[in-house]
Specification:
Strand order of the largest sheet: 1-2
Structural class: mainly alpha
Oligomer: single chain
Number of strands: 4
Radius of gyration: 42 Å
Distance between the termini: 81 Å
Order of helices and strands: HHHHEEHHHHHHHHHHHHHHHHHHHEE
Strand content: under 5%
Shape: elongated
Helix content: 55-70%
């Protein structure tokens, strides 16, 4: 069946009732007992409508005794307490869930002796009705004998003092109950174990600079460390002393870390800490070599330092790499990580091999710098230059031949592309030495220059058209602002993607779509599209350069 509110239903005046009452208590109750409970709940939440026992009985069409009996019925489940007989007064309690099992009734009268003994254990304060009800319910739920309950309470007061809160007692009782420690014998055995462990726990707390008495949670942790993790008490205390001012939770995490590394003895723990300290010290040295400061080293160690060491790099090699990164303006951990990945993929890991690699890079860049000056370019070598050089060398050209090609390309509009053409021609004609260069190669070079001029003309036309279209578009009212925002959105999208911020990503994508549609509509008024704002080359494959990377484009050999 389905139940729902009608459209005109008003919730302005209602009485709240916990769902657990409906799911767990309602099925076991009689109709009139539910009437009494709900009416009493109504009076609790609307004190201005307070009434006497007689008035309540009259309103519910019940006798006064029936009302009292039904309240007593709910009292046996701990849902409320009858606090006064004359005048009649009832106090409602929070409803306890039994997680699917049937609620259990109890009679407070059977705990008369227990209540007296319990009050004697807590002489510094009066135990409230609610607190008694909590203890009754715990005993009924976990089948704990009153004598066993008193033993648990006494243990708590011995550890925490006479002013202990009932919440702590309840927590300990639940711990015992969940482990089915509910008889005098079982409680006595468990408490004996705790008492035996108290001395060890006190030593651990002192090692951690914690000034408090041991409690049940400490004992459970000690049982875990000595049982599941197989640590000796002496080694646990030693591990705690290495943490100094800390907490039991941090000690637990530390012991789990030691367990994962199979470090159980004092010597193994000391060696683990020495290695850990060495890794952190190395992280600090690397940061200093890169001239950066990181406040939280844990992230650096976990993300970078440990990984680099696992690759087989030694400290000296890593510091050498960090120094190289700083000198070359790549002084971030991400830059260094990318370089280390490159070195690792090439099998360059030891200090000597790293030094040789950097020396080779230095010599390569010196040659490229010389080559760039030869062709008339005044700039620093870049990865594309290095890639070109590697390809030319793979074609079996010597550095002298490459430099000669550079001399022939000097002064040309696209000298590197021109060099590619020369070297490609030499390769196809098996010209691999200076002596074999003939006048026909010069003629071929002139043909190459003619091709370059034609490609330059094509690019110039495409760029000119795109520039003119941009000027027309920017003159359209409102287009410039939209176009600028679309460009900035791309950067915002990149940052949101890095941060894994799906909410921001979705919002930016919607904004991008809306602005793109507006911009396209504005361009249509001038018979333009977004494609018209960029150069439209005759050959989309090479962009009218004649080359795709360092390889001739398919259009190169076609009639220009």
């Amino acid at each position: 069946m389905t139940c729902s509110f009608s459209k005109d239903f008003s919730t302005s005046s209602f009485t709240n009732i916990e769902s657990v009452f409906i799911t767990e208590y309602l099925p076991i109750a009689e109709g009139d007992s539910v009437k009494v409970y709900l009416y009493g709940l109504f009076l609790c939440q609307h004190p201005e409508k307070d009434c006497s026992l007689a008035e309540m009985a009259n309103n519910l069409k019940l006798s006064e005794q029936q009302v009292i009996d039904y309240f007593s019925f709910w009292e046996e489940f701990g849902l409320l307490s009858i606090v006064e007989k004359q005048p009649f007064a009832v106090q409602y309690h929070p409803i306890r869930s039994f997680s699917g099992s049937k609620p259990r009734k109890y009679k407070a009268e059977k705990y008369t002796d227990f209540t007296k003994s319990l009050q004697a254990l807590l002489p510094n304060r009066m135990i409230s009705t609610n607190e008694y009800s909590e203890y009754f319910m715990l005993m009924e739920t976990y089948f704990i004998k009153p004598e066993a309950m008193l033993m648990i309470v006494k243990y708590c007061t011995d550890r925490k003092g006479k002013d202990i809160s009932y919440r702590y007692i309840s927590k300990v009782v639940k711990d015992f109950g969940n482990r089915e420690i509910n008889t005098i014998e079982k409680v006595e055995k468990e408490l004996s174990s705790y008492i035996a462990q108290t001395g060890v726990i006190e030593q651990i707390l002192r090692a951690l600079s914690i000034r408090r008495a041991p409690d049940i949670e400490d004992a459970n942790l000690l049982k875990k460390w000595t049982g599941e993790l197989s640590f000796d008490s002496e080694n646990i205390i030693f591990a705690a002393s290495k943490l100094k001012k800390s907490s039991m939770e941090k000690l637990d995490a530390f012991l789990l870390e030691l367990y994962a590394m199979k470090s159980f003895s004092k010597q193994e723990i000391a060696e683990f800490l020495d290695k850990k300290k060495a890794v952190y010290d190395l992280a600090i040295k690397i940061n200093k070599a890169l001239s950066i400061y990181v406040e939280v080293l844990d992230t650096v160690v976990d993300t970078y330092t440990k990984k680099w060491l696992s690759f087989g790099f030694e400290e000296s090699a890593l510091l050498f790499i960090a120094s190289h990164c700083f000198k070359n303006g790549k002084n971030t951990l991400q830059d260094m990580d990318e370089l280390i990945e490159t070195l690792r993929n090439r099998g360059v890991i030891t200090l000597s091999s790293v030094g040789d690699y950097f020396e080779q890079i230095k010599k390569t860049d010196e040659f490229i710098s010389k080559l760039l000056l030869t062709v008339g370019l005044n700039r620093r070598p870049n990865p594309w230059d290095r890639e070109n050089l590697n390809i030319w060398k793979s074609w079996n050209f010597s550095l002298d031949m490459i430099l000669e090609a550079g001399k022939l390309a000097s002064g040309k509009s696209s000298p590197i592309a021109y060099m590619n053409g020369i070297l490609s021609n030499w390769k196809n004609n098996n010209v691999f030495s200076l002596e074999n260069i003939s006048s026909s190669d010069t003629s071929s070079s002139n043909t190459q220059e003619a091709y370059n001029r034609e490609y330059e003309r094509r690019r110039s036309i495409a760029l000119s058209r795109a520039q003119k279209n941009n000027e027309i578009a920017m003159a359209i009212q409102g287009f410039s602002d939209i176009y600028g925002r679309l460009n900035s959105i791309e950067k915002d999208l990149a940052f949101a993607e890095i941060a894994n911020d799906n909410t921001t990503l979705e919002m930016l994508e919607k904004e991008k779509k809306t602005l793109t549609e507006k911009a396209e509509n504005l361009l249509k008024t001038k018979r333009l599209s977004f494609a018209d704002l960029s150069p439209i080359y005759a050959c989309k494959k090479c962009g009218d350069t004649g080359y795709v990377g360092t390889q001739r484009c398919d259009c190169f050999n076609k009639k220009v």
